Amino acid sequence: MRFGRYAISIAALFSASAFAQSSVTLYGLMDTGVEYVSHANAAGDHIVRMPGITGEVPSRWGMRGVEDLGGALKAVFVLESGFNVRAGDSGQGGRLFGRQSFIGLEGPWGTLSFGRQYTMTYWAMADADILGPDIYGIGALDAFLPNGRSDNTVAYKGKFHGVTLGASYSFGRDSAGTGNSPGQGTCFGPVPGDVNQCREWSAMLKYDGTYFGIATAYDEQHGGTSAAANFFDGVPPFAIASGSDKDARLQANGYVNVMGVKIGGGWIGRRVETEGAGGSVRSNLFYLGAQYYVTPAFVVDGEGYRVIVQQHDTRATVASLRATYFLSKRTAVYGNVAYLWNSAKARYSVSAGGGGTTPAAGIGQLGAIVGVRHAF
What's the number of domains the chain is made of? Predict the structure, then answer.
């Protein structure tokens, strides 16, 4: 009788396995090129190099899986690792799966996920920011924006008739201590006895239609031990060491498709409030871009950016133009040129890919890259 019960249980297990459909996909992308940057240091010297981080898009490899649990419910997971083609080293501070690492449940009501994942700041910009995480994109003025991730995060996203709702909450946004954005320091968490230290939360409301879309999002990081706020303008990062310190970004953006041209733009307001020496600092970042497919295989796009940090008296403007030719569905070659104008006290760098190119205050930079990318 006992053997019979085991046989029935095993049969039921195999039956359930046969009923549930599952799949795992291995994917990746490699992107690099040769870059020239003028005035790469305070002495005014130029540099020619392979950038350490990105060209058009950051290189990565990963696995994603889905299992149909029945009743329109699915189990999903993503493990995604960033790496640098130049030297073969891992990105995101050397993490194994530093880009994404989460598991969740998906249904008609949306997706609920747990782990290291993007905040709503990243998702809200996905369509309006024309160049995206490009080497001469918005990351040159605020490196957090194309790297908006947090550890220990519970996130929800759901789309209903064109409207997307999203929210995330992190119990400790940088538990690995490697930094989620260059120059931002680290913020270990969660921390016993301090419910606010290293916490982060974000929310998003987005609408996508046939010809246009609009989005808004809010992201709030709390300070903690070793945490810092960096405005990337040449002013040294300052500590936000208390759980009551805040680094918040509010944004609004949109895009429209007109006669084959996609036009996108937006505004990001940042507010850092700290009880420490940094005080209260605010910035406003504006961007506007356009994209046009000359042929199905050849696309030209460009974008302009303007940032103003009032308390630092720093400002910068970037103009970036890019052309991409698709050799196949997986492989493309591209060329990208950009120029950055710094105000008298600003030391922004035009290149968001690899660092080490900070000019003297008030000096502009020219950046140019020719590269190739391949998806697999």
Answer: 1
